């Protein structure tokens, strides 16, 4: 039975999993779970992931969620996945786990928290929380600086001194691409000082084309929508995200 | 060269790594990095982990931090570690990654955030933040409920339907044991409704004795200290933790 991948392409870890499958020639059926329509809470999807989160996969008898766990599983279970995505070498693999764990408590809450509380919240029927936005911005700024000076140290194209991408590059870059929906001045302020981060995002994009752009299309459309709303001086309203 | 493990036993992921080494007969030198004395920011420790966090390890040429990454590495690198800690079976391993990832964004910020903002903050020179405490309590309560009804579903002694502990049991239980420093009434309110969680903590403790109690000794002493302070109606003051 073919692998089933449950996603909302507006979710950055969903995009990472879809791109990974496509780049590695993994055959799969993509099942859309539209978060803005609360489809993740349906009894059908609760059978797949009782915690109601995307992405999730079903492979034979295995039901699995959490994008890092999914990426690792796919890398190990599908022979078409090349070693550089999740190296067999113990030390290299350990370093990938380390950056993925760091991501959970630094870059992810920073980026997702900032985007939610400056742009997305009204589209999800939530208030914009300026205090939470400031806290997230602080974490995001620190995380970008750590990426620039530590994780991307040296002259390699990808994280951890590698010249080929790993699942960590894909996961972290997909997290950062969501900053596209911010106001231009905010995005420039955040990313501008971090030249290596910008180059690395582009390296990861190039290494996963054409799938990278195709899977991000929904985000780029959302970006246009938010830009138009800003030009018109309106704010996003509940329900608007269902047309993204 | 013997494995070096850099820890502060007041840190729950440090405790998980030390217990894991001891239970599995891994020979190591433990190097104490006292967080309350800001030793994690010393130039010597920054050579080990530039991000200034414990636990961290050095094994040969590998420098590694993030406790989950460390536990996985040790399980793979040391032949004395039995399979149940980090099973070779792809599906079982995937589920362990899933629960470890879930931990990062649910149980960990819930438990650590609540303890910090109700008890520990003054001892670290920080203010107690009641709003942050309420937010963390909400996340912790939800996480405990998810543990009880989902991750500990069935009649097994450990997570994911297993009758032997994995690195996930150790990591999550060490996170929860820090609730010992709370006021009795708060701890009972949080843990009381979750019978399976209580049994699972005890199962994990028993499976890792005598190391579990020995490594938690510093926490139990801290608990006594906080209890005495409460009896005397005083609050913890900056610097007090250096004597824990």
UniProtKB/TrEMBL annotation, chains A, B:
Keywords noted in UniProt: Detoxification, Transferase
Positions of the GST C-terminal domain: 89-232
One Gene Ontology MF term: glutathione transferase activity
Enzyme class: transferase
Domain GST N-terminal, chain residue ranges per copy: 1-82
GO process terms (BP): toxin catabolic process
Database matches in Pfam families: GST_N
Catalytic activity entry: RX + glutathione = an S-substituted glutathione + a halide anion + H(+)
Domain of life according to the entry: Eukaryota
Enzyme Commission number: 2.5.1.18
PANTHER family reported for this sequence: GLUTATHIONE S-TRANSFERASE T1-RELATED
Family: Belongs to the GST superfamily. Theta family.
UniProt-recorded name of the protein: glutathione transferase
Organism, scientific name: Arabis nemorensis
């Amino acid at each position: 039975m073919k692998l089933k991948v449950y996603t909302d392409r507006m979710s950055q870890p969903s995009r990472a999993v879809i791109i990974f499958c496509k780049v590695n020639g993994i055959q799969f059926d993509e099942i859309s779970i539209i978060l803005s329509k609360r489809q993740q809470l349906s009894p059908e999807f609760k059978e797949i992931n009782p915690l109601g989160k995307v992405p999730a996969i079903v492979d034979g008898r295995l039901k699995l969620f959490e994008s890092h766990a999914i990426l690792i599983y796919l890398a190990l279970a599908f022979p078409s996945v090349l070693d550089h995505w999740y190296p067999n070498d113990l030390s290299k693999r350990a370093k990938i786990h380390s950056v993925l764990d760091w991501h959970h408590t630094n870059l992810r809450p920073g980026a997702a928290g900032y985007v939610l509380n400056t742009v997305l919240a009204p589209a999800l029927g939530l208030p914009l929380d300026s205090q939470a936005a400031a806290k997230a911005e602080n974490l995001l700024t620190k995380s970008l600086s750590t990426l620039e000076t530590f994780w991307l140290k040296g002259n390699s194209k990808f994280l951890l001194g590698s010249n080929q991408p790993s699942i960590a590059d894909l996961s972290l870059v997909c997290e950062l691409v969501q900053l596209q929906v911010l106001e231009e001045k905010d995005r420039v302020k955040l990313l501008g000082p971090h030249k290596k981060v910008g180059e690395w995002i582009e390296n990861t994009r190039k290494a996963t084309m054409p799938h990278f752009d195709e899977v991000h299309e929904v985000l780029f459309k959302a970006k246009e929508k938010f830009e138009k709303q800003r030009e018109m001086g309106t704010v996003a309203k509940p329900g608007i995200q269902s047309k993204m």
